[in-house]
Fold this sequence. Notes:
- There is one protein chain.
- This protein is of the alpha/beta class and 305 residues long.
- The chain folds into two domains: 3-111 and 281-294, Rossmann fold, CATH 3.40.50.720; 113-277, Dihydrodipicolinate Reductase, domain 2 (2-Layer Sandwich), CATH 3.30.360.
- Helix content is 31%, strand content 23%.
- The chain contains nine helices and 13 strands.
- The protein has helices at residues 13-22, 41-50, 60-70, 98-103, 113-127, 149-158, 176-183, 221-230, 279-294; strands at 3-8, 28-31, 53-56, 74-77, 89-91, 107-110, 138-144, 164-166, 190-196, 202-209, 237-240, 257-263, 268-275.
- It is globular and about 60 Å long.
Amino acid sequence: MTTSVFIDGEAGTTGLQIRERLEGRDDVRLVQIDDARRKDDAARRDAFAAADVAILCLPDAAARAAIDLAGDTRIIDASTAHRTAAGWVYGMPELPGQRDRIRSAARVANVGCYATGSIAMIRPLTEAGILPADHPVTLTGISGYTGGGKSLIAEYDAGTLPDYFLYAMGQSHKHLPEIVAYGGLDRMPLFQPSVGAFAQGMAVQLHLHADHLPGEIAGHARIEAALRDFYAGDPFVSVELPGERVEPQSLNGSNRMVLTVQGDGAGRVTVVAVLDNLGKGASGTAVQNLNLMVGAPEDAGLATM
């Protein structure tokens, strides 16, 4: 059985990578429109109608507007627009019971890149009762400049992008609401993201004083055990031993995410998630969600190097 897929916003960074993961598959037929008509609502409406599933790779306002054009076509939205909206299923398959929800969903909101790493670290700990929902959580992270979309890519191409910078200093990063909602938190975390002068790749850190958390065992052993239990058998997420260095670009091109528990053994712990912000953090998970929705193998078209 062949599934027809329309990528609305195919010319963007995420759209191009989704197309790359789909165009070689025998079980997928891409519905495409001429570049000259990609903003023509009539052409887009016809493309939606011809597709079994459409993937929106658009800015938030355009993604909201696209819903009116989509009709009854099943949707995966890669924007931020619907991640905490009523009637939408959150597209992070690794969460408890989420694969089944995605399989039957008509509307799936793809998880954000920083949110992927953040929730992957936080949710197992809130589920296990290690991290209280109202705990003052601190997150930091670095991403390649492609995470900033066309504007940052243009800065890099122009040679004006600095080697490294912090942003969202006012604690208003757009991924925070979904991190709270799906991380199992009651309190908004502190989150300080940054950008490096490399195209893609991401490392997200969760900083904890583990000896101040509930329970009798201080240090990182119980944190690592909770993560291993949560992801046991998962096709894309693994918990590995820490190394001397963390390389944000080490999983580029794959749909994998690797978690490590770093620390001094005396209560100061940093949990680290490494992933490709354009892969597992965007296009890869969109394809993973598509596979679940259409009954394909979950890893179809996805690298697990």
